[in-house]
Amino acid sequence: MSDCPMTLKGKKLLEDELSHLIRVEREQVKQAISEARELGDLKENAEYAAAKERQSIIEGRILDVQSKIARARVIDVATLNTDKIVFGATVTIFDNQKETTMTYQIVGEDEAMTDPKKISYNSPLGRALIGKENGDEVIVKAPKGDLTYEVQDVKYS
Fold first, then answer.
1. Which of 157, 154, 123 is closest to 9 using CA atoms?
2. pLDDT of residue 1
3. CA angle (50, 54, 59) in 5-degree steps
4. C-alpha span between 140 and 142 (Å, rounded)
5. How many Å apart are CA 83 and CA 80, to the nearest integer?
6. Ramachandran angles phi, psi of 43, nearest 5°
7. Angle 50-56-61 (CA atoms, 0-180°, nearest 5)?
8. Considering the entire predicted model, what is its pTM?
9. Using alpha carbons only, how large is the chain's radius of gyration in Å?
10. Choosing a second label site near 92 at 20 to 30 A (CA), which of 5, 35, 46, 117?
11. What are the residues whose beta carbons fall under 8 Å from the beta carbon of 131, sequence distance 6 or more?
């Protein structure tokens, strides 16, 4: 299993999610299963089947989050000092096709899903930006053709 890079904030988000899943979601589904059992025959009990399915989803997510936290390689963005774009950088780029400026922070996969201003280091744009510097041109291969961006600013905060 490989490391799971994340920011301090990303790890905190996962820890909070894990706590919520264990303390709230797991307890709610236990209660739902208990109530559904009281309704009688479990073979034809839709409430019971739905509760058991929900339990399976919650337990799967708990295992997934626990695994990510165990494999976490936390990167403190505030300690980074480089001109090159690395994990945790906040990058301002100019989209040459749309003629617009966009700013993104390059983060881990779970953290990227929580904020549209964040992109995963594994995304096509994230992978293309890693290693670039201010003023560099970045080409991203996309289904509709190559997308070209220019790096305008790189910050670590």
1. 157
2. 61
3. 150
4. 6
5. 10
6. -65, -35
7. 130
8. 0.78
9. 21
10. 5
11. 84, 85, 86
pLDDT (mean) for 54-67: 96
What single string gives the DSSP state of each residue in the chain? Answer: ---EEEEHHHHHHHHHHHHHIIIIIHHHHHHHHHHHHTTS-STT-HHHHHHHHHHHHHHHHHHHHHHHHHTEEEE-GGG---SS--TT-EEEEEETTTTEEEEEEEE-HHHHTT-TTEEETTSHHHHHHTT--TT-EEEEEETTEEEEEEEEEEE--
pLDDT of 128-145, one tens digit each? 999 999 999 999 998 888
The residue count of the chain comes to 157
- In this structure, what token pair is assigned to residue 29? 């589904």
Tokens for 33, please give them.
Answer: 């299963």
Query: What DSSP string describes 105-146?
Result: EEE-HHHHTT-TTEEETTSHHHHHHTT--TT-EEEEEETTEE
CA distance 120 to 137: 19
